Amino acid sequence: MADICSLKDAVASHVHDGDTVTLEGFTHLIPSGAGHELIRQKLRGLTLIRMTPDLIFDQLIGMGCAAKVVFAWGGNPGVGSLHRLRDAVENHWPQTIEIEEYSHAGMANAFVAGASNLPFAVLRGYKSTDLKKFNDRIRSVICPFTGEELAAVPALRPDVGIIHGQRADRKGNVLIHGIVGLQKEAVLSAKRAIVTVEEIVDELCPPANSCILPHWVVDAVSVVPGGAHPSYALGYYERDNSFYIAWDTIAKDRNVFIQWMEQHVLGTGNFSEFRASIDGIWAEEVHE
Amino acid sequence: MTIADFTTNEMMTVAAARMLKNGTVCFVGIGLPSQAANLARLTHAPEVVLIYESGPIGTKPDVLPLSIGDGVLADTADTVVPTHEIFRYWLQGGHIDVGFLGGAQIDRFGNINTTVIGDYNNPKVRLPGAGGAPEIADQAGEVFVVMRQGPRSFVEKIDFLTSAGYLDGGDAREKLGIEGKGPTRVITDLCILEPEQGSQEFVVTSIHHGISREQISAATGWGIRFANEVIETAAPTQEELSTLRALLARTAEAHQKNK
Fold first, then answer.
1. Do B83 and A181 touch (CB under 8 A)?
2. CB distance A130–B54 less than 8 Å?
3. What's the confidence (pLDDT) of residue A148?
């Protein structure tokens, strides 16, 4: 049964130091507001799972929340590098992080296996890539029917799954539509699930075949308007491409990054305050 | 017929776009592949089916997406499926004719690195990583690669094998039982390369207008060879150029507006 509460309370109740946490959303509905709350509550030693780490992982890594990152593609989409991820991997700043690296197909299958209560996923792949040389959890199985060798990856079973959806009703049933990525799997594979939404409505009125997460698979639902910024929420707002471009400059320099995070994330109480604090000023700031 | 003024980048995108046939089902990577695939759709191949790994199938964006999952891809798609379905049912299921990829490094056998420069455990440059590319490279019917050519990207030895070309050449790929045919074209800003039958080493088969063999050799980190018969790549037509320029202008304007 979903508890409808503030994001602050949701994170405090369900996320603990050392947890394995996934924040999913494939370029759409990225739970940025929830990522900020993990940083504000100074969570440490997290294993962070995300198929495409982007700005929120850059922030979590740079602020020292991550002990390990499980991923397939870590970049700033359409812009370039994640400088904080790179600094951690290349220079061990602010600390050494362990990385466990797959391809998209491997992680997508691993989430499906987790949601299906299976220990591992079977797929065609990893026949030649060097990824398996550096990740000993990419293994193989023999098909008991044909004798064919297939790739196997362990199921993803995070402690906490965090996603952002368009809206929920008063019971906590969640509606997601548009590019749904691996959000359903992130919730169903996790022990506990937090969903942030744009709004809570009396009636969801879901279009046929839309992605619904019933309230009884979600632990907490929090209203975080604009909570996917700078990504987008179909039907609510568009992707803030200029923020992705600006992030490159903010994240490039350790001091600029820390100062920016202290002022805009640690220095604000929630995502609405964060949005107000960057409204119209970040562009000038980074060009100074 | 006069040859219009065009840049080497425009020639690359146009040459890459021409590779896609009308009706081809194409799995599109972000960046240069996306530009070329959409140019094909807007010129000679209106029925080309574009699939992006975030879930849109049969998408027809009027501006180029900045990310692999921009809203415009979902808004204009025939259908949007969950990401795992893209990889499991559509790619692994064998429904993709062409995978369109880019890369940071490529070798003479079309093997691609998008993971690290230097040692994996102590990298000089940590690149974004594999994403969807390894399985696209394995399972698409064939693969087209589009990359700018230079001695640091066209290298004797890639630092990390992210996505398979022909591995060590010859029948190495086939022997491993990799499903798809592999890379059949590499399109650059200087030329078009194709695998030489037997060795599977990429050789130059078409040189873009105004480019010399010396330029190509200087931009390649291995002793690049030229096919016995090398043709000149037809210059972009006025239609190709104006369509590409209009697409890029619309894209720039749309992304500016989102500020």
1. yes
2. no
3. 96
